[in-house]
Amino acid sequence: MNEGPSGYRSAGGRSIEGGAVEFPEDLRYTKEHEWVRLEGTRARVGITDFAQDALGDVVYVDLPEVGARVEADQPLGEVESTKSVSDVYTPVTGSIAERNPLVDERPELVNEQPYGDGWLVAIDVEDPAAIERLMDAGAYRSLVEGS
Questions:
Q1: H/E element, 102
Q2: What is the CATH number of the domain that holds 49?
Q3: What is the pLDDT of residues 7-20, one digit of tens each?
Q4: Which of 7, 23, 29, 115 could form a disulfide with 3 if both were Cys (CB 3.0 to 4.6 A apart)?
């Protein structure tokens, strides 16, 4: 994310030890604070609860069009909040299969339901095994608790 991954290094004073930030066990995570849910050969992607909390109120989301090719670890789009504009990075290589139409109309869903209706895109993944190389919930929790 454009204020860089470093834009997420603190929880903004919010306690993560008390369980205030969620780390769903069924997801994989990136060091840039994106989450991935594998659905067959399609990966649903969003930003984590930790990331949305650090960003503040999301007011606009810019995402690629369906059919666009995306490369792992490259910028996918942007999330604009009242605090900053941040890049969202692609966790896997593939092509955009879906854009979430709900976040175009209601970008605040990224804050309200980061693991639900606030997802960003679905990617047809070239190599589904690549998802296994991403962090599990325990590793991601360690990353953010250490920041």
A1: helix 101-105
A2: 2.40.50.100
A3: 333 333 333 444 47
A4: 7
